Amino acid sequence: MKKVISTIMLIISVCVLVGAFLFYQFQDDKLLALKSHMSLIAFKGKIEYTDSDEEAKRLKEEKKRLEKEEKERLKAEAEAKKEEEKKKKEEEIRLAAEKKQQEEAKKKEEEQAKKNPPKSVLLDIPVVSQLPELKNGCEITSLTMMLNYNNISVDKMTLADKVKKDTTPITYNGSSIGSWGNPNVGFVGDITGKSPGYSIYPEPLKPLVEEYMPGKSLILNGVDYSDIEKVLADKRPVVVWVTVDFKPPTRQAQWVSNGENITVNLSQHAVLLTGYDENNVYYNDPLDNSKNKSVSKENFKAIWQTMGKHALSYYK
């Protein structure tokens, strides 16, 4: 009986020991579970264990650092853009000042040239013949040369079609002209020469110049000869009303146009002045298709004045 009781007590002791072992083993498992609840973070192969508070703090600091870096980056970009705009503005100001300086220098040179024109000028202007189409079209053909010199591609026939015309018909008193058109209004008569035709003066040519050179037509009627030289010195040709070969006019005529008395020289001719020197004036003649013909200054002045000192050019 004692032996049985001893055996039972032994079994109970073993069970108690096993139970205790299992209890402590369970507690260890709980500890391990708690450990596994901690965050496992890997940085470049290094493994660290941190609790949730430390991780939250680290993430907050990391976010703050990234926000700071982004703010600094945006600030740097804004400053760089501002600096670039500043440099661009400074460059624009510099270029504007440089342009203004160049314009002022050019203006000063031009003013100086006007005060002291060069002793000689000769422009290279291609000659255009008025013949055979425009027997009476010396003014239009001279104007064509002037426009062509300014790189305006237009021909004499186009200008002849567009030019203002005074269509008042010609009438006669015996062998003399009784009434006809007014050259201050438009071209008088037939510009082609198929029937009687006379001329046109600078004023009615102005709209035609304005069509191709807006705001630049320059009427020089009645100016001094020195003003003509100043225009030529500025490399601008001048259409002038003179006579054929600068011979003294011999064919004077008078008629009435809309109640106004018109007095003219029928030997009138228009040419394009291209230059001058100490003694001569040079011109392109549309009648004989000659380039840079010469006439003495004295002869030019005399004939030009006799024919009314009409002249036409342009502003630059």
UniProtKB/TrEMBL annotation:
<feature type="domain" description="Peptidase C39-like">
    <location>
        <begin position="123"/>
        <end position="286"/>
    </location>
</feature>
<feature type="region of interest" description="Disordered">
    <location>
        <begin position="99"/>
        <end position="118"/>
    </location>
</feature>
<feature type="compositionally biased region" description="Basic and acidic residues">
    <location>
        <begin position="99"/>
        <end position="114"/>
    </location>
</feature>
<dbReference type="Pfam" id="PF13529">
    <property type="entry name" value="Peptidase_C39_2"/>
</dbReference>
<keyword id="KW-0472">Membrane</keyword>
<protein>
    <submittedName>
        <fullName>Uncharacterized protein YvpB</fullName>
    </submittedName>
</protein>
<keyword id="KW-1133">Transmembrane helix</keyword>
<keyword id="KW-0812">Transmembrane</keyword>
<dbReference type="InterPro" id="IPR039564">
    <property type="entry name" value="Peptidase_C39-like"/>
</dbReference>
<dbReference type="InterPro" id="IPR038765">
    <property type="entry name" value="Papain-like_cys_pep_sf"/>
</dbReference>
<feature type="region of interest" description="Disordered">
    <location>
        <begin position="54"/>
        <end position="91"/>
    </location>
</feature>
<feature type="transmembrane region" description="Helical">
    <location>
        <begin position="7"/>
        <end position="26"/>
    </location>
</feature>
